[in-house]
Amino acid sequence: MEGNYAKRERMSGAVNALSLSPEGNSVVVAGREILKILSINKTEITETLNLRAGSHFNLNYSSNDVKWGNNATKQKVATAATNGAIILWDLNKIGRKAERVITEHTRAVNRICFQPDNGNILLSASQDGTMKCWDFRDPKNGARYRFEGKSESVRDVQFNPVSVYEFAAAFETGTIQKWDMRNPKALYDRKVSAHNGPCLTVDWHPNGKLVASGGRDKTIKVWDMTADSRRPLYTIRTMASVSRIQWRPGFENEIASCALLTDSRIHIWDIRRPHIAKYTFDEHDTTPTGFMWRNSNELLSVSKDKWFIRQNIAGAYRPFDLLKRNGMGWNVQGDIVFSIDKSSRNLFVDENLITKPVNGSPKNWKRLGTKTASEEDAIQYVPPQICGIVHMPLFDFEAFSVFADNYIISSENVAVACDINGELAWKMGRYRTAQTWKIIAMFYSDEPVEADVEESIQESFSFDMDRSTTDDDDDDDDEDEDDRSSFRVREEMLEDISQSSEGDIDSLNTGTSSQIHIVASSFNLRLPWKHESVVMELLNYYTEQGDVQMCVTLYLVLEKYLNIDNERIEDWFTAYIDLLHRFKLWSTATAIIKACKVQNVRERNENATTINIACNTCFKLVNGTSSGSWAHQTVRGLYVWCQGCNHGGHLSHMRDWFADEQQCATGCGHACVLQPLLSSLPLDEE
Asked: What is the torsion angle, in degrees rounded to the nearest 10, for the CA atoms of residue 637, residue 643, residue 644 and residue 646?
């Protein structure tokens, strides 16, 4: 295979499984419509026997799994069918090769395996929830042993290569069990709750002590079956559900896996480095249905894409080599996390921060605290990076959250809303924002301000954008104090002016007239004021600054006075709602969506009407069951429900009902507990 690391052979149909002959020079492939023997040599793959030739279509031949006998039965092949049949094939038999058909399973047989030292002993795992052991030397009798796993189905079984009477089984419930054939009437020797969801595959380590399991929860776990620990030694998190796994021969820490769906690659993992595969094969068009090692470097695989592929580890790509060892990222709170490769570290890095290799361990590997049966520690890979977190206060998320919770967004009384919002901004140290709200309040006050100013102002209202490109973050303490002092003086001047009646403006003394000039100059005003153009300048300014919170709040307060196109409004609201969701300000986000007049934004409150219930202990979502445990209601108003029976109703109705009753209003008989909640809420509160 020099120069070309993958050899392909196109099959006539989809392939579900394969098995290698004891000599390693032939392989049997099986599927719904195919059962063939292929010969493998150094340069090519050739078909030598078609076991389905001349036979009519029969569900007995629709194979889920196939296994080649061992050294004692080199010419025997067993297949497991989708209808529950197990067929033993004799390759030396002339004519029809099927030697025996067993039909004792009532549902599909998922997996079969021969005992390592005895090719006449076969173990099967079925969808009917049972495991059965067959001795082909006794053709008259049925199954020699029957094992009940107390599960809906058994997904996989594998004999222990060292202790040949022990086997491990994978179950639909997510558990794996270890059994001993010498005690067929006893229950399992050990049971492990391995996966959240079905466990699809297991494989014994060559040392006979460890078992690897793969499940639909997208994990591969390694267990010490000789210890009492309920925690796995290693856990590998994959991108998709794991359908098949197999330890790599000659490499005690490496295991190969393929996915059930979505991922068409075969990954080889080093269990000590669980976060990224060591090697990856990407030769199939669809997810592989089966694979096995021919030797430590050569892998055989099949798929429903009809390809049988022989590939060498030298042709696999190494994902780790493609990774950059330096990285950076940040979160919404302004925390920046970084990693620096130790090999390229700068002089300022403290040598004490570097993890030294453990004596007796390879470089970049450390020992974990978990003990195995042989009193040896498990080995875990240590990444050769130094990591750290730095806080960069580029965004004041605390002020953002306070404003989101407390800003007034009602447009019923503009002056009151602006005064409250301005006072809040002042308390939070956002003095320029407070000025904005005070000026807007002055613009839309119920008492109009008019003045006869002899000297006209050259520019219309605008903020002093040249002094600061941000709201407040760049001002030092002295400038903040100046801003506060000038703000108080100008605020008092404006209050004096606004309190003057329309006829008294001409009677103001010279000092007051000077004040008018000072105020007009300070705020750069041209009287009479043009409100809408000034507000649009404000909105443009905050849009350029990226302050969508101010844009949305200003718009909602002044909505009845403004005429802005829906596209721009939608951009503001969408960006603001996304920020609120990032900070988990769900109630404020809902109120903002409800207040928006743009239909595309309002629909966001109508897209989801499902309420998910989480466990109070582990905070995981509670899945739906026949007795409830989940709620799906179109919610209008305050709605409450019982987490015991899942029935509920509007809060006011529940208060009325449980004022005199103890059981659920639906008549289900459940004693719902609402009274403790009612004791903390006034009954007259609406």
From this structure: 50
Q: Is the pLDDT of residue 85 over 60?
A: yes
Contact 180, 166 (CB under 8 A): yes
Please, which residues have CB within 8 angstroms of residue 361's CB and are 6 or more apart in sequence? 367, 379
Residue 521: the pLDDT is 44
Contacts of 509 (CB under 8 A, 6+ apart): none
pLDDT digit string, tens, across residues 658-672: 888 878 887 777 788
| Per-residue DSSP letter, 144 | S
3-state secondary structure 207-234: CCCEEEEEECCCEEEEEECCCCCCCCCE
Using CA atoms, how far apart are residues 92 and 74, in angstroms rounded to an integer? 10
Would you state the structure tokens that stand for residue 508, as one six-digit string? Answer: 């103001």
Answer yes or no: are the C-beta atoms of 214 and 245 closer than 8 Å: yes
Q: How far is CA 199 from CA 152, 172, 196, 438, in A?
A: 12, 6, 8, 65
The more confident residue out of 340 and 573 is 573
Q: What amino acid is encoded at 636 in this protein?
A: R
462 touches 524 (CB < 8 A): yes
To which residue do tokens 């780790």 refer?
320
Distance CA 571, CA 160 (A): 62
**Which secondary-structure segment (H or E) carries 135?**
strand 130-135
Is there a cis peptide before residue 206, judged by omega within 30 degrees of 0?
no
Model pLDDT, residue 456: 34
CA-wise closest residue to 109 among 131, 135, 77: 131
Query: How confident is the model over 132-177, as pLDDT tens digits?
Result: 998 888 877 688 889 988 888 999 999 999 998 999 999 999 999 9
- Scanning 615-680, the segments in alpha helix (DSSP H) are 651-658, 675-679
Specify the DSSP class assigned to residue 647: -
- pLDDT number for residue 406: 94
Query: Rounded to an integer, what distance in angstroms lies between the CA atom of residue 628 and that of residue 238?
Result: 32
C-alpha distances in Å from residue 253, one per residue of 89, 188, 279, 623:
36, 27, 13, 36
Q: How large is the angle between the packed helices 531-545 and 431-443, nearest 10 degrees? A: 160
Based on DSSP, count helices (H) and strands (E) in the chain, helices before strands. Answer: 12, 37
Segment (H or E) for 591: helix 586-595
